[in-house]
Amino acid sequence: MTQYDSIAEQYDQSVNTRSDREVIFIPSAKHFLGDLHGKQVLDLACGSGFFTRFMKEWGASHVVGVDISSEMVELAKQQEKKEPLGIEYLVGDVAQLGKIGEFDVVFGGFLLHYASSVEQLELMIRSIGLNLKPGGKFIAFNENPSVPTHSGIKYGVKVETEGPIQDATKVKRSHYVGDKFDFVIEHFHYEPGTYQRALRSAGFTEIEWTNFVSASGPDFDEKYWWDFLHDFSVAVLKCCKGT
Ligand SMILES: C[S@@+](CC[C@H](N)C(=O)[O-])C[C@H]1O[C@@H](n2cnc3c(N)ncnc32)[C@H](O)[C@@H]1O
Q1: Model pTM score
Q2: Is 72 within 8 Å of 102 (Cβ atoms)?
Q3: Domains contained in the chain, number
Q4: How far is the CA of 152 from the centre of ligand 1 (A)?
Q5: Residues with Cβ within 8 Å of residue 35, at least 6 apart in sequence
């Protein structure tokens, strides 16, 4: 039983209703994944397939989704049955995945910070490298190692840490809908240098942490979303597998 098995339905409902998905995460995934036409894409920590389905719709020739939670994968498979896109879903722990293919792009949507130790983080990153073609791209949405926490409830999220902020410090991330508590998930913090070393030793180059991008247009409330885009507890990691 993984922590997401018990909150699978709740989490799935949350991703399909939260405004940050619409105005920040979907535009950012599209932006950072780039042109997926004809590409082989691996979505690690695919959950109920929220981003996985977009990747196929954005033109990828083949998409495989992997998640450690059988309940989350079950929800993804049910959706695939309802509206078939030709996505393959597997239950598996990224740290133990081994090589399942040669992908042009790997996406880890809130994956790496679930590693419970530096060793687990290194194993996850090694698995990602194993499954990428030389020159292939790894994009992650992740805890922001430079802003691991913030005070109060910001954007429906409260973040609390247990003990001093250092490698493998436990982080409690509580989700709220308005003022109402929805669910809590636990993950771990790693220092920027720890991510950097693990990525370098697995052969990654052009490693960069960057801000999310947002939707544009007259309806986008720039002032409201400013902190999310510049000073929030999640960020984007982009890098390439060396050739
Ligand atoms: C915050 S959810 C994100 C799901 C999806 N990427 C999304 O954004 O909708 C994190 C997911 O990571 C998965 N996960 C955690 N540790 C994992 C591991 N070691 N291997 C594979 N999946 C893992 C959880 O089961 C959960 O579905």
Answers
A1: 0.97
A2: no
A3: 1
A4: 25
A5: 59
Rounded to 5 degrees, what angle do the CA atoms 143, 94, 123 make? 80
CATH number at residue 91: 3.40.50.150
Most ligand 1 atoms within 8 A of CB, residue of 53, 67, 139, 171 to mutate: 67
* Burial call 30-59: b when 16+ CB within 10 Å, e when fewer: bebbeebeebbbbbbbbbbbbbbbbbbebe
pLDDT single digits (tens) 20-54 = 999 999 999 999 999 999 999 999 999 999 999 99
CA of 35 to the centre of ligand 1 (A): 24
Provide the residue range defining the domain that includes 27: 8-144+191-241
Sign of CA dihedral 78, 81, 82, 85: positive
37 lies in a domain?
A: yes
